């Protein structure tokens, strides 16, 4: 396929993550026009960089998602229209890894309790056996892609033994052991932390269900930085309220924003963050580098990097 790219629109939806003007300025050296666009302006673009999908995007030639996850985009419609979809896989490994490490450190050093106590001006030290250190613990990471490897890299530096779960049990660098999906229950049974980094697909939807939580140790913590619907949220709430697991750190949810009436807001030992595990002041630069690379590839007639459709 031969594509022409003379005008790139940075869609205003990226403002949820970074100011779109920052990306426009960062790409001012490109040999194409780059500007901020709203829904009404998309039709004049050859390409669009976006957080969300709009039906108007079906008129462009190339869409770039600023996230790695692309479950919000209509693959069939894009294929029928001959539209290229690329994503931002590869830029979130360190940021998400550090976020996951911060969750584990909060639980082990009881930092979330201290923050809550400070809000109430309450001096309340943890019990002698509440706090622990991370070396010697085991984390089971569901998904050994870019995010999973980033988590394994950061946790490994903290002395955490990290095992992975993926389609096959073939070894993956950074993981001390790898389980196939069919052995998921065996993988989570002895883990101190179970961490989801998976994208949402038909195969992963509600992969983490009642059976998984029942298999986990009652002292284990659950973390989700992948996609909310990978987890059966009702089953998670049941596990937390019944004490089947020790707690959870959640950055993604089945419904976002998390509804005010969700029990997750008020359950002890639950940390809620607003889908921001990958946020960093360099986010727009990381996305810009991917866009710049693909503009260069397009000019040279080379295949797109990170092409999804």
TrEMBL record:
SUPFAM superfamilies: Formate/glycerate dehydrogenase catalytic domain-like, NAD(P)-binding Rossmann-fold domains
Residue ranges occupied by any D-isomer specific 2-hydroxyacid dehydrogenase catalytic domain in the UniProt entry: 53-308
A GO MF term: oxidoreductase activity, acting on the CH-OH group of donors, NAD or NADP as acceptor
Boundaries of every D-isomer specific 2-hydroxyacid dehydrogenase NAD-binding domain copy: 102-277
Superkingdom of the source species: Archaea
Keywords from the UniProt entry: NAD, Oxidoreductase
InterPro entries, per the entry: D-isomer_2_OHA_DH_cat_dom, D-isomer_DH_NAD-bd, Dhydh_Halo, NAD(P)-bd_dom_sf
A Pfam family of this chain: 2-Hacid_dh
UniProt record similarity statement: Belongs to the D-isomer specific 2-hydroxyacid dehydrogenase family.
PANTHER family, per database record: 2-HACID_DH_C DOMAIN-CONTAINING PROTEIN, D-ISOMER SPECIFIC 2-HYDROXYACID DEHYDROGENASE NAD-BINDING DOMAIN-CONTAINING PROTEIN
Database matches in NCBIfam families: Dhydh_Halo
Protein name: D-2-hydroxyacid dehydrogenase
Organism of origin: Natronobacterium lacisalsi AJ5
């Amino acid at each position: 396929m031969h594509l022409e790219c003379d005008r790139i629109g940075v869609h205003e939806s990226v403002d949820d993550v970074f100011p779109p003007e920052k990306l426009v300025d960062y790409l001012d050296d490109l040999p194409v026009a780059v500007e901020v666009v709203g829904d009404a302006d998309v039709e004049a673009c050859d390409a669009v960089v976006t957080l969300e999908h709009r039906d108007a995007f079906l008129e462009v030639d190339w869409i770039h998602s600023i996230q790695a996850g692309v479950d919000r985009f209509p693959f069939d419609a894009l294929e029928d229209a001959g539209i290229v979809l690329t994503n931002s896989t590869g830029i979130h490994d360190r940021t998400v890894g550090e976020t996951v490490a911060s969750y584990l450190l909060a639980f082990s050093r009881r930092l979330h309790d201290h923050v809550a106590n400070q809000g109430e001006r309450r001096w309340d030290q943890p019990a002698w056996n509440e706090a622990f250190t991370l070396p010697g613990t085991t984390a089971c990471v569901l998904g050994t892609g870019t995010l999973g490897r980033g988590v394994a890299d950061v946790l490994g530096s903290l002395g955490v033994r990290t095992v992975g779960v993926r389609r096959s049990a073939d070894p993956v660098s950074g993981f001390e052991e790898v389980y196939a999906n069919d052995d998921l229950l065996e993988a989570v049974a002895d883990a101190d932390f179970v961490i989801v980094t998976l994208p949402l697909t038909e195969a992963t939807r509600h992969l983490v269900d009642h059976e998984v939580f029942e298999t986990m140790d009652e002292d284990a913590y659950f973390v989700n930085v992948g996609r909310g619907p990978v987890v059966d949220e009702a089953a998670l709430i049941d596990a937390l309220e019944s004490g089947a697991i020790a707690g959870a750190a959640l950055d993604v949810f089945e419904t976002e924003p998390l509804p005010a009436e969700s029990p997750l807001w008020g359950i002890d030992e639950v940390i809620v963050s607003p889908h921001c595990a990958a946020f960093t002041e360099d986010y727009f630069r990381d996305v810009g580098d991917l866009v710049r690379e693909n503009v260069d590839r397009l000019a040279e007639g080379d295949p797109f990097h990170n092409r999804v459709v």
